[in-house]
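Thread title: Can someone regenerate the structure for this chain?

I was given the following input by a collaborator and told the matching C-alpha cells would be attached. They weren't. Posting the sequence so someone can regenerate them.
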Amino acid sequence: MTTRTAVPSRVRRALARASEHGFQGACEDPVGPLLATLAAAVPPNGRILELGTGTGVGTAWLAEGLGRRDDVRLETIELDESLAAAVRADDWPTHVTIHTADAEALLPTLGRFDLVFADAVAGKWTGLDLTIDALAPGGSLVVDDMDLGRYTDPQHRTAVLRVQRTLTDDPRLVTARISAGTGLIISTRRSDPPLHRRDEKTP
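Best answer:
Regenerated them for you:
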C-alpha cells in the first residue's frame, strides 16, 4: 500500500501562492518529500542552496526537513522580484535567506553547499558548471524536470540532454537517473582524495 506524505502548512501556503500568481513551475511529488529527506541529512553547520525559489514550494519542503535545526543555512535564489517578495513575506526561520538575483551571476560568490536543488534555467540549463563547482565534496545535487518526454521544443530537448550528459560524464560526480515525477537526476560529488605524504624516512 502506498502512503502519501502529509503536506506541511508552509508547503500548502506556497502552493496557494503558486495558484494566486499563476505560477506553473512549482516542484511536484515526489520531489518535495525527497528534498525534506535530503535536507534532514545535511551535517551540522552545513549549507543548502535552491536555484529558483518560485513561490517557495521547494524552499518550504527543505525547511521542513530541517525542522527546528538552526545550525544549517538555507539559501534560495529567485530572479523574479515579485515572486521573491511574496515568498519573503511568509514566516521563515532566521536561517533561511531569500536572494533576489540572477543565480548564474550570484553562484560564484556564495561558496560551497552540502545540498543543491537546481530548479531554474540559470544554474541548470545554463551555468551548470558553476552549480557543480558550488557542490561541496560529499554534497548532493538534485535536478528535476529531466523527463525528455515532457518537451517538444527541440532547443529544450537539447538542453535537457546536455544536462543529463554533463552530470553523467563529470568524473567528480556519482549520478543516478530516477524515472519518477517529472524526471529526476541526483548527483553526489565525490570526496576529494586524501593527499599521500611521501615517506621521509631513508631506507
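Confidence is low (pLDDT under 50) at residues 198-203.
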